[in-house]
């Protein structure tokens, strides 16, 4: 009850637009949760519960660290979590829409760059003893975003190895270059091009042999991981370019403040 009461008070002090988005998204997640329970999809039901917790994090961060998350940033974070977990994972948007994952990782790079920028910008603006250069602000912003992107890929790899999920989506390719295929054991790649199909043999729980044929060669996650990191890099670069312009002329590029958390100056009533 204490946790709910604290959350209620935090929401009351938050911007009405962010709270409205939060309430609507929470309602949609609850509907999804009920549907997953009805269909005995317990893994998805757990994911719904996790998403309910995650969408409260912007408000908890504001309360815990006494910072003000801009309305734009709060809304984007909530929608991002919903798009990734509920739409992407449970409703299979990752497979239905080809570039859904790419869009989310690009946005993640942009958002995390903004958060990284704000971490040092808060120190810069609220300390008389520290004066950091614009170049340093941008460097921290970029490295913070890329670190989060790498940690996310570590998480996907761990999930795939430990729980046999497919967070790192597989890719069918037709060309490979591999030293492993060199019959003489030399450090020279054997190149295979225009691979038409690959047959995969495995056994089920009863020991029966299962044969699967795919059109090409199966890359298990490398292409997906590198693509995710590249678009994360792109998102971070885009934010840094805009942030640089903001530093030079914060009046003209004032919209950037919608992505940068600031220190709370007074308690909202």
Structural account:
- The chain has 269 residues and is mainly alpha-helical.
- The protein folds into three domains: 1-97, no CATH class; 98-168 and 221-262, no CATH class; 171-219, no CATH class.
- Helix content is 61%, strand content 10%.
- The chain has nine helices and eight strands.
- It has helices spanning 2-13, 16-38, 42-54, 57-65, 71-90, 93-96, 100-126, 134-163, 222-248; strands spanning 67-68, 171-173, 176-178, 190-192, 198-203, 209-214, 217-219, 262-263.
- The strands form four sheets. Strands 1-8 form a two-stranded antiparallel sheet.
- It is flat.
List the helices and strands and how they pair.
Layout: H1 2-13, H2 16-38, H3 42-54, H4 57-65, E1 67-68, H5 71-90, H6 93-96, H7 100-126, H8 134-163, E2 171-173, E3 176-178, E4 190-192, E5 198-203, E6 209-214, E7 217-219, H9 222-248, E8 262-263
Antiparallel strand pairs: 1-8, 2-7, 3-4, 5-6
Helix pairs in contact: 2-3, 2-5, 3-5, 5-7, 7-8, 7-9, 8-9
